[in-house]
Write a structure and sequence with these properties.
Elements (H helix, E strand, L loop, with lengths): L3 H6 L9 H26 L3 H9 L6 E6 L2 E7 L14 H10 L11 H10 E3 L6 E3 L33 H11 L25
Antiparallel strand pairs: 1-2, 3-4
Helix pairs in contact: 2-6
């Protein structure tokens, strides 16, 4: 006989996932990525050092084919530079002169970034005329425009909840994940689902 309370607690699989639930999925993915990235980063490049060392040695091995049970999994390949001509950094003046003699040079005039930053910092908008002027000199600055702001940039920030510098948000989410509370949200992302609980030790 089914328990009515338990049945009512089951999520409606046909219901659309709410924004709050999507937020939980996103937070969990961030947490697991943060925890696993250092470990995965070391492991996924485990063959890199030996391959480079082997190529630099006598065997010049540049490829490694990975198999499991006789079936191909993938391959590593040492990236090699291609032969090409480049400007000698120790003699670039000679090439520049060579190009200038043949009128094959570009002269690019662009404002200094420091000047642009200073003008934007000192700029003010005259609400009556719409002119943008230098707040220090009163001189009108041509070529600037004022952006009102307040529009979405396309990026969304996320901040973990903390209490007295303790990562309470991470702790709460990880605990819920380990209990399998979020599994119903992760049907389309099984790699994020909690594994089985450790078996209880028998006395």
């Amino acid at each position: 006989m089914s328990n009515g309370v338990a049945d009512s607690a089951q999520p409606d699989e046909t219901a659309e996932i709410s924004l709050a639930e999507l937020g939980l999925v996103g937070a969990l993915a961030r947490l697991l990525d943060e925890q696993m990235k250092p470990i995965i980063g070391l492991k996924k490049d485990a063959a890199k050092g030996p391959l480079l060392k082997g190529f630099a040695g006598e065997n010049k091995q540049s490829d490694l084919f990975v198999q499991i049970d006789g079936k191909p999994v993938g391959s590593y390949k040492v990236a090699l530079t291609q032969p090409r001509f480049v400007i000698d950094p120790d003699n670039s003046a000679a090439f520049n002169e060579y190009a200038e003699e043949r009128r094959e040079v570009d002269i690019i005039v662009t404002p200094k970034p420091s000047f642009v930053a200073a003008m934007c910092e000192r700029a003010e908008l005259d609400p009556e005329t719409g002119d943008i002027f230098d707040s220090e000199t009163g001189e009108i600055i041509p070529g600037l425009k004022f952006l009102q702001g307040g529009e979405p940039t396309g990026n969304v920030s996320f901040t973990w909840a903390t209490y007295k510098k303790r990562p309470v948000g991470k702790q709460a989410l990880l605990a819920a994940h380990r209990r399998g509370v979020l599994n119903y949200l992760l049907q389309e992302a099984p790699e994020l689902m909690a594994g089985p609980e450790p078996a209880a030790e028998t006395a």
